[in-house]
Write a structure and sequence with these properties.
By secondary structure, this protein is mostly helical. Helices cover 63% and strands 0% of the residues. It starts with a helix and ends with a helix.
């Protein structure tokens, strides 16, 4: 996935998180969209729960 598409998709997650503390997929804490987007963009799989939480916090707290 190219950087432009990745940034656009992450921006949607950030907007939904900011507006309503979650999206229609469910609770942010259970969501796998950010790790999936990261995998598609960077080619790295993050499976460790603590690492996934750090990634989500980094992306969602950066808004």
């Amino acid at each position: 996935m190219d950087k432009e598409t990745f940034d656009k998709e992450i921006a949607m997650c950030q907007a939904l998180f900011k507006e309503q503390q979650g999206c229609n997929w469910g609770k942010c804490s259970d969501c796998a969209v950010i790790p999936l987007l990261y995998k598609l963009h960077k080619g790295e799989i993050i499976e460790d729960k603590d690492e996934v939480k750090k990634l989500k916090d980094k992306i969602l707290c950066g808004i």
